[in-house]
Amino acid sequence: MSSIKTMYRRTMAYTLTLFLALGVTQLSIAEETPQDQRINQSMQFVEKLLKHSSVAKRVHDSKNEPAIALINEAQSLHDQAKQALAEGEPGRATALLDEAVNLALEAGRLSYKEWSVDEKRKENYEARLRSVRALLDAEHRVAKEKGQDDKAFDAKVDELIQKSMRFASRYDYTSARQYLDDAYQMVKIKIQDLRGGDTLMRTLTFKTKVEEYHYELDRNDTYSMLIDSLTREEGQMKIDSIVDNYLKKARSLRESAQEQAANGNHEAAVKTLEQSTMNLVRALRNAGFFVPG
Amino acid sequence: MRRWWALVTGTLLLVMGVAGAQDPLPLVYDGVHDPESAALRVLQQPAEAFETLLKDDKGRVDWMASLDAGVIEPRTDIFDKEKMVFIDMNIIMKNTASMPYVTFQHKTHTQWMTCSNCHVEIFLPQKGANVITMAGIIEGRACGACHGRVAFEPSDCERCHNESNPTGGLW
Lengths: 293, 171
Known about the structure:
The structure holds 2 protein chains of 2 kinds.
Chain A: H1 2-31, H2 34-51, H3 54-62, H4 65-86, H5 90-111, H6 114-145, H7 151-169, H8 173-195, E1 199-202, H9 209-233, H10 241-262, H11 266-286
Helix pairs in contact in A: 2-4, 2-5, 3-5, 4-5, 6-8, 7-8, 9-11, 10-11
Chain B: H1 2-20, H2 46-49, H3 63-68, E1 90-93, E2 101-105, H4 106-110, H5 134-138, E3 161-163
């Protein structure tokens, strides 16, 4: 009896100590609010950005006077933010830190070599030009299909594209892009006018049985990947003897299909692959996964 | 005595664990951000950012519902100058074996993106020009350029395979 009382008292003592420790921890956390923690972390982050980051290094190495002036101004704002925080004005400190970050990033952009920006502009222009041409081709096909050819529209878009290409040939990608974007916008709106509300049915037609065989192989791969993912990675699919039988049958059928394809009999290979895939689907269903069909 | 101690400690740890559980994961645990980085605490946590967004039936953010309800108003581009043009055109893809057919809705995609995001680098805007397979999608090609990375996972089958297939069934 006395041993039970002692055991009880000791347990209560340990439990109370634990709660007390948790309470003290909570108190000490309460002294520094989440807002304080965020501002202090921001202060450290901005200091790192201005003194030790790759942006700061690039600005100072570039010898670009306006960029260096900006980062110095950002440093001054950081000092003011520290002062504001010490004076109990966290709102003002946060605003000053945000401004310091903006100035530092602007300094980084200024110090970036001009040729890199031009390369990017050229890439963006060329990507947009490819897009406009492909969409214009699509618009021609759809307009023809619907009997709504519009030569005036085509001429206008072509004129804009030609203007943009003239500016691009002079490396003035900014001006080139303005005309190209106008052409792009016109083509988009025209496609919506032609196709808005349509529902198109798409069925793949294979030119050869070889193509169809590769397509079915991909489909078979998909179910295999799914089963792999469910078993190895997520542990959601348990392999019992019934499921295992279906998996073995699927593998055997796939091997047969591959042999048939190697012998040039792609028609038979497609049918065999379909059966293999069906066995993978049965494996999934028997493992408890719903697959419609 | 040891059993009492284990029971009390275990119960306390269980309560703390349940109380501490969060969805979505804090940045420090998401496997993407560097947990050692001091900048991590400056970033807004997903749980706070997503609090006001609409959720799907699995408890995840439903970005389309949030956009349609006006909870978010994304900029159209960096300068918020590009005019969005929604293309209201559906494509039903029927090469799905026993699975329901796939419906691709241009409208939901053009509410987020412009034509050149996909045309031509990912898809040619031409009938019969794009062979799309699930294996390719899972490997990051075609639809997989976004789905499974910045849009919902390809494992959410019913979100795309949602058109009745006479030889198969529906969800």
